Amino acid sequence: MTEITYTIVEHDGGWAYKVKDSFSETFPTHKAATAAAARAANEQRVPGRTEVIQYEDEAGQWREETARGNDRPNTLIVDKS
């Protein structure tokens, strides 16, 4: 199963959460960034509908696959402050 890690970090004069190399918006407090990360992590775990999706891969090729609505990732929040 896939795992997504939300890391709380200082960013642009405030706090943000980061997933891989992508930052969230900047929050004024550590507590606000942590709460936002928790909301995002919870949303990742909510099951949805099974649907056919199309996406462009890293090589620029278009792919089509069936995304199972119950195939949700594990999420983890890590505090790097």
Query: How many domains comprise the coordinates?
Result: 1
Q: Say what oligomer this is.
A: single chain
Strand order of the largest sheet: 3-2-1-6
**Could you list the spans in which at least 5 consecutive residues all have pLDDT below 50?**
none
What proportion of the residues is helical, as a percent range? 10-25%
Number of DSSP helical runs: 1
Instruction: Based on Cα principal axes, name the global outline.
Output: globular
The end-to-end distance, rounded to whole angstroms, is 28 Å
Element pattern in H and E: EEEHEEE
Give the number of DSSP strands: 6
Mean pLDDT: 95
Radius of gyration: 15 Å
Question: How is the secondary structure organized here?
Answer:
Elements: E1 3-11, E2 14-19, E3 22-23, H1 30-44, E4 51-56, E5 62-67, E6 74-79
Parallel strand pairs: 1-6
Antiparallel strand pairs: 1-2, 2-3, 4-5
List keywords for this structure.
single chain; alpha+beta; two-stranded antiparallel ribbon; 81 residues; globular
Structure description:
- This protein has one domain (3-79).
- The radius of gyration is 15 Å and the shape is globular.
- It is 19% helix and 43% strand.
- The model has no long low-confidence stretch (mean pLDDT 95).
- With 81 residues, the protein is of the alpha+beta class.
